[in-house]
Amino acid sequence: MSEPCRLCGSTLSEPVSERDRHGGALRSIVCMGCGSVTNDPIPSDEELAAFYRSDYRVSYKGTAQPRMRQVWRNFGRMEQHLKANAGFYAGRSACLDLGSGSGEFMFMARTLGIGCVGIEPNQPYADYSREVLGLDVATQTLEETSFDAGSFDLIRLSHVMEHMRDPVRSLAVLRGWLADRGILYIEVPNILFDAAHKRRGAIFHYGHIFNFSPWTFRAAARRAGFEELPASFQRYGTTTSGFFAKGQAAEPGDVKSPANGERVRDALARHHVRMLPEPDNGSAIARGVRSVGARLSKIVAARRFSSPRQIADHFAARLERVG
Questions:
Q1: Cα 201 from Cα 218, distance rounded (Å)
Q2: pLDDT, tens digit, for every residue of 162-190?
Q3: Dihedral sign of CA atoms 311, 208, 245, 172 in order
């Protein structure tokens, strides 16, 4: 490790990969003090800003703007999320969606009476959000953004924190923009789940600077001065998602867990030697069949509509009827 861990301050690390998911050179290391997995070296703010502005979506998703089947899938997932977490979102009125992507949450949130501002550093996706969905989205990074203290009673980071070169620093900035009784929602990929269930070598990506387990996910939030809502921990405590409120910032030593470091290291070692992913709700072959079937069903469903905006309006109307 070229510098102390940004979560726990440890300088003990071990390499876990030398390649990204496409076979390109990318060194990844695990901190043995807490189990956080990072690129080594961590890119600079300037390097990341350039990457996300133009290259990220094509590199990660293979397209500059979402395909119709992806639009259908994304809105379907958002509908399920909002219904399952209606109690957390109830009464919220002013939201910052950081890394708003293709805008599904912002679009659906209007149906719930939540006004949203989006920050999306990728130019094509920000353009899509503004021009196709009519959303208030700025094309910029967190570092280029400023709001008054307490501006929002809801801040969302869905699959965003893994892209931050210093999650504690960034979360601390967001804490200042959050109202005292506001809530923060965070969701990231789970490195332990991915190590077990993704095909060998299909984990690491240049844009995913931090790779979190349930422990390090919550450690980052605690270090920045957030505490998970009890109802959220009861539902999501074994995962890498959750709803947080303002709390006291933890010290680096408070989030150390050498046992988690060993757990993550060993999970990645098993990932690199197994031929097939571990079973998850059936065999790998059965999962593959279901995946193909699900993709085809999304393609068929999306073909009922002539544009992404029609799909968006369809899901918003369904949510409005439920509400």
A1: 26
A2: 999 999 999 999 999 999 999 999 999 99
A3: negative
CATH of the domain at 310: 3.40.50.150
Instruction: Tell me which residue of 69, 54, 36 sits closest to 219, measured CA to CA.
Output: 36
Scanning the structure block, which residue is given the tokens 């998970």?
228
Phi-psi category of residue 150: left, alpha or beta, with phi > 0 → left and psi -120 to 50 → alpha: left
* Residue 288: partners with Cβ closer than 8 Å, 6 or more residues away: none
Contact 72, 227 (CB under 8 A): no
Domain housing 241? 45-255+282-322
Question: Would 298 be classed as within a structural domain?
Answer: yes
Cα 188 to chain centroid distance, Å, stands at 4
Residue 35 CA to residue 7 CA, distance in Å, equals 10
- Residues sharing a CB contact under 8 Å with residue 313, sequence separation 6 or more, in sequence order: none
d(CA 159, CA 247): 22
For the stretch 290-321, pLDDT in tens is 554 555 666 667 788 989 999 999 999 999 87
State the Cα torsion 311-312-315-319 to the nearest 10°.
-170
Place of tokens 């293979």: 62
Spatial separation of the C-alpha atoms in residues 102 and 63, rounded to whole Å: 12
Residue 190 belongs to a domain: yes
Q: What's at 144, amino acid-wise?
A: E
